[in-house]
Amino acid sequence: MAKLNFKKGDTVEILAGDDRGTKAEILEVLSKKNKVIVKGVKVVKKTVKPTEENPKGGFINKEMPVDISNVRKVEA
User: Fold this and answer.
1) Which of 19, 57, 62, 76 is a plausible cystine mate for 50, CB 3.0–4.6 Å?
2) Residue 3 belongs to a domain
3) Mind listing the pLDDT tens digit for each residue in 29-42?
């Protein structure tokens, strides 16, 4: 497996997709899948079923993983 040059907290720029050009912080690195989760990028609305903690259910906004080939580390 190749070594990833990204760590949690690094600032990266998005190279492809709807959020191209966005600079943001890495929240999580998924090394086995070669993906990273970036703050505020690729946000989707997920439905949540009612539970005891959240009796109404509803929607949450969640960041989805981005492939590491679509991000570039930014030196600050």
Assistant:
1) 57
2) no
3) 999 999 999 999 99
